[in-house]
Amino acid sequence: MLIERAAAPLLDLIPALEPHLDARTPCTEYTVRGLVNHLLFWAPSLTGGATKVIVVPPDATEAELDLTTGDCLASLTDAVTTTVKAWSDPAAWTGMTHMGSPMELPASQVGGMIAGEFLVHGWDLARAAGRDLTVEEEVAEALLEELAKTAELGRQMNIFAPEVAVPADAPALHRVLGLTGRDPQWS
After folding, report:
1. By its UniProt entry, which InterPro entries does this protein fall under (predicted)?
2. What percentage of the chain exceeds 70 in pLDDT?
């Protein structure tokens, strides 16, 4: 499944993040800790999308809640694993679903967005830790196709930054990063 394959590099990376929690990330509004908090904040909604259950985020904003107390990296591993498991059911990819709001979207589109979230934020976290993220070319190609469908909407919603020019013959991961407003050469 796409989400499982997109999440695998992130899951492999999580244990190495401990010494880097205060590092900057290519996702400019977040440090590593902030990005972990972001992923933990939205995890219930991402999982709920698989079961077609609207999981409304807490009344507090993501910035107002600190979900990184305790062993936040173990919590992140659990959250990502739970989301992957929920989306492993083929029924999760059918029909319409929600992602933290009453607005319905095609489940396959939501699944693609979640896979992109894991891949791109996995790369953000890897770069902040001074590492590369190894992603299967086939997975990156599939996500490039998926994210291209919603990139303009993502920019309108300030989810994606303006596109960064990347050569057409660059690896698919670099093209995904450029599409989402990241410089693949960020260090």
Report:
1. CHP03086, DinB/YfiT-like, Maleyloyr_isom, MDMPI_metal-binding
2. 100
User: How many other C-beta atoms can be found within 10 angstroms of the C-beta atom of residue 24?
Assistant: 15
> Mind spelling out the 3-state secondary structure of 78-144?
HHHHHHHHHHCCHHHHCCEECCCCCCCEEHHHHHHHHHHHHHHHHHHHHHHCCCCCCCCHHHHHHHH
Rg (CA), the chain: 15
Ranges of each domain in the chain: 2-143
Contact 96, 51 (CB under 8 A): no
- Could you tell me which residues are beta bridge partners of residue 97? 105
**Joined tokens for residue 104:** 């319905």
CATH 1.10.1660.10 fits 2-143, yes or no: no
Under 8 Å between Cβ of 14 and 76: yes
